[in-house]
């Protein structure tokens, strides 16, 4: 191994040993033991207890459903913008409407990701399972009516047409 690399590794090793040998740092490690806080963001727990109650944080699952809905809206359904028809992904490639599509879909993304108020429950027609239903604002006119509600793995989504989606353009 070339001498330059060895010197560099020795230098870095010495720096780590020197920082670990600092008295206040070493004392904190010994004092706090396994509970030593190394900083950073604390990882969320899906299941926690508050007293004798079990609390489940389902936000990560709901976030996945919202991302899945956006992917479905972007690739599976046809929309109309300024007389142009196609999926969001295809309309983004159309130079005539690409800027408007990008802007409108970004607004719809914020609406979907911010949808957190449960407005009711919906029963899946095939599985007969009950889903919590949340509402988002759809500002792009669909060619065919969107299914109401749109079922995903954990949530059902209800689309509310607003703004440009209500106009006949």
Describe the structure.
The structure is a single chain. Helices cover 40% and strands 24% of the residues. α3 (59-75) packs antiparallel against α5 (98-114). It is flat and about 70 Å long. It has 2 domains: 3-42; 59-165, no CATH class. The strands form 3 sheets. Strands 5-6-9-8 form a 4-stranded mixed sheet. A 3-stranded antiparallel sheet has the order 4-3-7. The chain has 169 residues and is an alpha+beta fold. The mean pLDDT is 83. β3 and β4 form a beta hairpin. The chain has helices spanning 3-20, 23-32, 59-75, 88-93, 98-114, and strands at 47-50, 53-56, 79-81, 84-86, 118-123, 130-138, 141-142, 150-151, 155-161. The termini are far apart.
**Share of β-strand residues:** 15-25%
Tell me the helix content: 40-55%
**What would the average pLDDT be, to the nearest integer?**
83
* Overall number of strands: 9
Low-confidence stretches: none
Query: How many domains?
Result: 2
Number of H/I helices: 5
Query: Span from first to last CA?
Result: 70 Å
Taking strands numbered 1, 2, ... along the chain, how are they ordered across the largest sheet? Answer: 5-6-9-8
**Helix/strand order, N-terminal first:** HHEEHEEHHEEEEE
Kindly provide the radius of gyration, computed on alpha-carbon positions and rounded to a whole number of angstroms.
Answer: 26 Å
Shape: flat
SS class: alpha+beta
Task: State the major sheet.
Answer: 4 strands, mixed
């Amino acid at each position: 191994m070339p001498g330059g690399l060895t010197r560099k590794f020795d230098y870095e090793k010495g720096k780590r040993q020197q920082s670990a040998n600092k008295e206040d740092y070493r004392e904190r490690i010994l004092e706090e033991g396994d509970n030593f806080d190394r900083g950073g963001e604390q990882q969320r727990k899906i299941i926690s207890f508050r007293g004798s109650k079990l609390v489940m944080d389902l936000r990560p699952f709901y976030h996945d459903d919202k991302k899945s809905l956006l992917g479905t809206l972007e690739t599976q359904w046809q929309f109309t913008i300024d007389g142009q028809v196609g999926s969001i992904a295809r309309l983004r490639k159309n130079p005539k409407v690409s800027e408007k599509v990008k802007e409108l879909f970004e607004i719809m993304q914020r609406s979907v990701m911010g949808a957190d108020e449960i407005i009711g429950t919906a029963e899946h027609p095939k599985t007969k399972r009950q889903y919590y239903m949340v509402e988002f604002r759809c500002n792009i006119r669909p060619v065919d009516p969107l299914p109401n509600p749109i079922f995903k793995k954990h949530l059902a989504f209800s689309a509310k047409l607003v703004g440009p989606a209500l106009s006949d353009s």
